[in-house]
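Field: COMPLEX_INPUT
Field: COMPONENT_COUNT = two
Field: RESIDUE_TOTAL = 701
Field: MODE = joint
Values follow.
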Amino acid sequence: MTVAMRRKILIIEDDRRMSDALVSGIETAGYEVAAAGTAEEGFFLVHRMQPDLLLLDLALPQRNGLEILRQIRSEAIDLRVMILTSHNTLEDRVTGLEAGADDYLGKPFSFQELRARIDALLRRFLPPQSQKPVTIGDLTLDTKTRTASRSGTRLDLTTREYDLLIYLAENRGRTVSREMLAKDVWNETSRFSPIDNVIDVQIARLRRKVDEPFEVKLLQTVRGMGFCLREPVS
Amino acid sequence: MAPLALSLRSRLTLWYVGILAALLLIYATLIFGFQYVILTRQIFHDEVQDIVTAEGLLYFDSQDNLQFRQNYYSRPQSHLLIDRLMEVQDLTGKVLYRSPTLHGMPLGGPLRDQEGETGFDQRTIRLSDGSHAMVISHVHTLQGRTMVIRLGYSLTPLRERMLQFLLLLLVAAPIALVVAGAAGQMIAARGLRPVKDMAERAEGITATNLHDRLEIKNPKDELGQLAAVFNHLLERLDLAFQQMRRFTADAAHELRTPLASIRTVSEVTLEQDSTIESYRDAVSSTLEEVARLNETINGLLLLARAEGTQPGEAQTDFSAKELVHEVLTVLGVLVEEKQITVREENESAVTNSIRAERSLVRVAIMNVLHNALKFSPSHSILTISYGYVDEKLTLTFQDQGPGIPVTDIERVFERFYTSNDRSRSSNSGTGLGLSIAKVIIDRVGGTIGFEASAVGARCCILLPSVK
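Field: COMPLEX_OUTPUT
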């Protein structure tokens, strides 16, 4: 993808602070961003800027976000839409997706998760399933045989540990939140369960196998955010 | 059709007056008919007597004309019979005598077949002046000549009398109805006054004085029972309200604690000439507290969702064993980490399925099991046993942890309950797990409780089951 083809993202969000933080974060991630505080302004920008992705807050003054979404869909504008809202019951999700949203993220979300989902939505064509081994430093993951090794030493991992490691490896260099792990690795949909405890213990066990016997520590805990698999900066 | 917007009192009165009016109408019709029949019979009777008398007063004069002896005054002592009308015809139809009261009008026209031959033929005829008369006929033989005597009296006085009677009824009935209506209204008002009092009293009861009760004057009558039912309702509302108030206060407290920490850490960091590391540290600490807040809010939302569930909603049938195994798989890493032995007892005895909302029961079991694992010491045994009690499926989780003091056996299910023992604070969660489990199990029609146990805690769950 060339620099000229930078993807454009529009944010319609009435909370100024939230909107500013999102603009700053998404810009840093390499996208072209604009923000609108009202539905009218947002609608105007949808036509002028022709964004690839719209991040839509549902609770807007005057007009409900769902109305905007329905209008966009009725005008057949080619645009992906992700709803960001604090109304996050199963029914809300269904309503949002039925109105034509491509994704639905409940507030408060972790920014890493938002970024991962933006990337996934804008990757219009799925990348060919990589058959090549994934490597981070001296850690190698063989996706064909589902095995992992460090410096040639094979790591004895359980299925869950391998799943966790490959998920971290796919997001290498980025911080992965506990919510993301719960959803994507454990497939746990309940928003309140002792799963965080399970994740912490699982990470500790994985670390014992992946990092403890070796000098270079790859699996890092980012306090308050989650976990990250990367080569430490020397 | 929309029902008439009338008060209960007016409706009761209306019904009462309506029924009374119908009864009066039937009564008046019967009386009227009865009176008419009686009077008509009386007239007939009088006329029969009169015709017998009249026969004795008839004579042929020297010109062979039939005459009536006027000097002998005889007539029935009845106000209804005023002028005697009489006509005599021979069998050929020739009129032999006609009383002057007829003013030349015929009394009934030509003879009819066998008229008056047996008994006294009775009929009502219309005279040519338009008035009606009741006439009886009788065959009589005078001086060897056979004749038919017709004797009648005008019905006008009778009709006038009946009309008067009718008018009297028509005037009296509405008056009676008005009086009865007023009385009915008063009686209804009296009877319904306790309801009004109750309504006024109930109107004064709001969220702030839910402990007020309605007055019960007579616990045995309907209104007393109604008041008792209301009071019972108020009691439950009051209880629920107290719980809610306490819960709101607790929730506010639980939300405030992380907020306080965020605030203090942020303020202290900003006030000092801090290094980038300490800023990082402060922001990370904030994020941790945010996670805690978020978890508490999620717990509260789940609690609200579970409380909104009605028994019987979104039910599916599923195997208890499979669900327990599924949860154990998720929590497996905790079991391994502490090297706990999970022992299952009687698992083959249970073949029935649980009937409930699976996703909710899963949350409940996960919280209970997690709680048991949390308090289990390393290398201990966790026993899960299955069974039945009265058609209900039982699941028992027995750990070898510190157990629960008998005094706290009920309190562990209270929201935000965390044991006082600070040595276990490393295990502290949101304090909502067991309350959520209890609300869920209650809502799906089961029960959950901790039983006294020699060692560790023993949690027993009963769930509705089907074959």
